[in-house]
Batch of 2 targets.
Target 1
Amino acid sequence: MWRPRAPDLKRSKGRAKIRLAQNARVGGIMKSVLKSVALAMLALTMAACATVTPQATSFNTGDWVLARWEGDQTWYYPAIVTERAGDVISLQYDDGDVGQEPAANVRAFDWAPGTRLECRWSDGIWYPARIAQMHQDRYAIEVLYDDGDKQSTNTSFCRGQ
């Protein structure tokens, strides 16, 4: 009498392979079912991602945000929304610079104690750190660098990761 057995997990070149059954007919059916389930899950995930609207749609004048500096595709800098015209947001960065960014390049200001970022030390070089303490004004912060140094600074000398 045939009995189903537990799936075997084998690794080959970094990929996991599941051997479902010795019986090819049963294995073929199971593989079809698993493929269908995987494809359905992928379709649902893609549909959910496609329906998510940009977070920036809720930003209003005066809101603190993090925004990519013009042309910089990596780092987020603190800024205040000064105007909103469709998908373009006018910003005043906390270091005094001004700019405009597409809404897709703006996200909510979410820095809090424990947030990882990079801050500029007195030598002008950016070093990895985390926020140890944030003052009520959300501008003055205490940071702890990865090498153990501490510094009182403000958000204009830091950038998000």
Target 2
Amino acid sequence: MSEEKKEEPKKTSTKKEKIMTRTKKEKEKMSKNTKKDENLNSDKVREEKPEVKLLEGEEQKVLEYHDLDDLITKYKKLQESNKKDKEALIKNKKESDSWKDKYMRLQAEFENAQKRWNKNRQNLRTESTGRTLKSFLPLYDSFKKALDGDDENKAILKQFYDQFISILKFYKAEPIEVKINDIFDYTYHEALSSIEKDDLPN
């Protein structure tokens, strides 16, 4: 009986050993599985890393929260500044238009003054030439009288007369034929003396 009892615990110990060996094997398997899972997870993390890098490269958009009253006050301030800007723009446009009008008027006045100056200068030149040529009219009359007479030197005088007339023509002074009873024209004629006649107009 005693021998049989001793053998029984041996059997139980072998069972325990088997259980222990199983648990060891299971632990090894578990550790292997966990290692595999870790390797898989690490691979996944490695695969996901580029995406994380891309996300890091992008700008982060942060949502801002504002109070409604603050937004209303800001909106009103913007409206007021916009209104002031519009008023300033209208004022500046009016000033610009007034300066433009002044500039146009000054330009027109300058052009008119330049025209008047040119006209006055031309008139002065004409008057000066006229006064100079007028001083030669007595010489012209002397030539005419000498040529109308019976002078021996008439041919020589004719040459001087022709030369004198060519000088007058150069300055656009030509003799005007005036007949008796012609109407007096203030543009071309100059009265040297006057005689009253009833049959002629004033």
